[in-house]
Structure prediction request, 419 residues.
Amino acid sequence: MATFHQISSQELECPICLTLFNQPKSLKCSHTFCIDCLERIFQTQPNQQIITCPVCREGTPVPSGDMSELQTNERLSSLVDEVKTKNPTCTNCGVDQESPTLSYCQDCGSYMCKSCEINHFAFKPVSNHKVVPIGDMLSGKVPLRSRRKCEKHPSADEDCFCTHCREYFCITCGTFDHMQKGHPLEKAAVHEEKLMTNIKELQKEAKSKKTTIENHIDFIETQRNEITAMLRKLDDDIDKTYEEYMQLLSARREDLKYQVKRLSEKFEKELQAMEEEGHQAILQMNAMEELVAHGMKVPLEKDALFAHDTLCENLKSFLGRDDPDDQSPRGVAEQARKISFRRQMKVNEICLGELKSCDVKADVELPVKNILNCITRAPDGKIAVGSFGGGIHLYSPDGEFQQTVLKNESFLGFACLPV
Prediction:
């Protein structure tokens, strides 16, 4: 196998980054590039299943979008590893020299020891060549070559460029191979200047484009922050309103419970008075019965007989009273049964409800004459009346008209609603 001192540096150079190959991967078209360069190209392409070769534009499938799955160029990989792991031999001294290689000439594409580097700079025709430390070349910090040598005339620089063939060559090749074919030629330096100008213009446009996109991203972030702030305010308003409503409902609940407590005290007071009256009557009868019972101890005479007669008359008079009537406590209970809690759910209003007293057995005369065709009672106690002329008339349980809905609809009947 050829070693690194037997091949040109061009073979070890990635066409994209222009430095030593790093994990060289070959595409379907056999063109080879660094894996990192391919990954950057892949990120810019819309089809994340195929990568387009930047040289010939042929597509290569990329399994699962993973560049490591592409075929590795083992030959180039071995040569690059050899260059990086072994000290390159000075190109000028030969393979048997013992002096370590310290530098690399990008123009000549040659490795040099210290003495050869001194002689290189002393030779006037090459004194302006770009010489870099060997470490920078091996680490990929600098391109391998700044000016290539002509393949047909190795001693001549590729200082001409054919815009038709898109390649560099020496002046001799340009004269005999390209100009005779009518190909447009220009100096390599001129072409490179145009190339640099184009690159700088693209960089300028890219910078402007990135600024525009960054401003767009900043604007998106501003909108996100505004939306977040507005939604946070909505949350705060909801929580605040909820707390206020809860305070109102809590106050209303306490008021209703207080009303229930007062009603309980009222009914209890009335029933307690009736109960005490009954207990008092029993005590009175017990006392009268005991006094009368003394007449059974001995025969009664004179004043004792008169006293006994009076006590008996009093007892008879008490016994002659009407028996306690259950109507009074029943009436109190009936008043309590008439009291109900009415839930109220009104649009845009917060009202827990109210306590109302109504006669559940009373007949309610609905003020709807000659139009009633069906009637039902809703779970909240409201009465719904269907009209031949259209609409449903809603009444409270005590017959008070509230509203008419569905005015343009006629109803022949209702489904029975649960009560």
Notes: The radius of gyration is 56 Å. The chain has a mean pLDDT of 79. Helices lie at 35-43, 74-85, 114-122, 134-139, 171-178, 188-293, 302-319, 327-338. Residues 49 and 239 are 50 Å apart (CA to CA).
